[in-house]
Amino acid sequence: MKILTIVLLTISVLFGSVDINTAGKKELTSLHGIGAKKADAILLYRKTKCFESIVELERVKGIGKKIVSKNRENLTASECK
User: For 12-27, how does the pLDDT look when each residue is reduced to its tens digit (9 = 90+)?
Assistant: First the structure.
């Protein structure tokens, strides 16, 4: 079952975008350079702030320009509510 989940997440990243304002931990960890700790940091940041653009992801501790640029094509930031 875990293998199927990993395959499906990989396919979704290849053919779809990960919305950093709505994605869960599993979706976030499917991104290049984002492990469990960085995904948790994104989720924690998101509790108090909304990402207006994918560049704002760099404000999360441990995530820099390099990670954002490697994932740029697979990231979106939906409208803040």
Answer: 545 569 999 999 999 9
Read off the pTM.
Answer: 0.79
Tell me the fold of 2-76. Answer: DNA polymerase; domain 1 (1.10.150)
Q: Is 14 helix (H, G, I), strand (E, B) or coil?
A: helix
Q: What's the number of CA atoms in the CB half-sphere (13 Å) around residue 47?
A: 5
Place of tokens 């053919």: 15
How confident is the model at residue 13, as a pLDDT? 46
At residue 35, what are phi and psi to the nearest 5 degrees?
-100, -170
